[in-house]
Amino acid sequence: MITKNPVALLEGTKLQDRYLVGRVLGSGGFGITYIAYDFLNHNICAIKEYVPKGIVKRGFDDSVLMPVSVKAEMEMKYGKRDFLEEAAILKELNYIAEVVCITDYFRENGTVYFVMEYLEGEDLSQRVHRLGGKISVAEANHIIYKVGQALDIVHEKAHIYHRDISPGNIIILKDGRIKLIDFGNAKNRSQMKSKTLSIVYKPGFAPPEQYESNGTQGAYTDVYALASTYYYIVSGKRIPEAPLRLQGKNYPKLKNMNLGVNSTISDVVDEALELDYKQRIQTVRKFVNVFYEGTCVKKQKKIPYLEIIGGDNKGKRWRIPPNVMIGIGRSSNYADVIPSKNLSISKLHCEIYYDGMTNQFYLMDHSVNGTYVHRKKIEKIGKNNTAVLQDKDFFILGRDICEIETGVMYE
Question: Rounded to two decimals, what is the model's pTM?
Fold first, then answer.
């Protein structure tokens, strides 16, 4: 049950003459999140408002947020900047299916807001509690693999480090999809070169370098947090805080706890939890590969493919490698698969990624003339948005230039 926040906006408040604010979904030290209705797109969304706890109050109209002192005003100034930075970071990551999607951000009422997709589900801490203290090894392997795949893209393509991976920031939606949230402490690679970083950590999930303002941080920082998250969700126990581990306190290895975690995964978790970041696994990709290889079916080789089933070059087929992003478009300078050189198709029209563990295709649109998928009706994905396709689904490039089927063969 959500306790009423005395500083929260009143239900029925309108923002940007577009969003109708509803009940509070949650609140923390720096923000309040509301369910809302978007009159422009006619859908439910969530809105996060920057509200630093203890240093602000509402004005007489119950909307405008006011600092309670000169010192608070300065804190708000820098806080609003960081809040908008989080929104901008998240908006850059909208093409990643496992990262919460940001649709808008703006200033109003003396503070700042961002609008994101409404996530109906539970975080991993809630799931662990609901399931009696831990999650099955098979489900945990799948969750960590999916989050790791998304994090790898965040690191390698967007050059952003999350710095707050924990069970509370991983959401399992009602339809089974997984979302990584809360990039409030994220930094891009150039910011990480700063001599000092804010000290932000969650005990039991953060590595030693996050306890120091001048600690060297990078992709390996998120590796440690992801490994400790895995340890927690399969065992129901947190590893000791990093300072205690530095003093000699250790944790039992997963392979010795009779949980069903195989030795290979247990050993990789230990390597990801090395206190010295130089000795730790350096990339998320290397860490999560073991979860894919340890859980996928090896009796048959999966071969994903794309085949044109309508329009230009009907019948042409391409085999595509699993777990690799493949570009589709009209120019070989930009794309790996060239279904047509029709000018209605963009040079890089879209990208597709086949997840060999879940047997799903992730289709990301980058086009001018649109990429469409067939659900109950033909639907446009939208530029920089992602659609999830299954075996024998199909998508359409441009204005009916060609229809392409997704498929999986076995050898």
Answer: 0.68
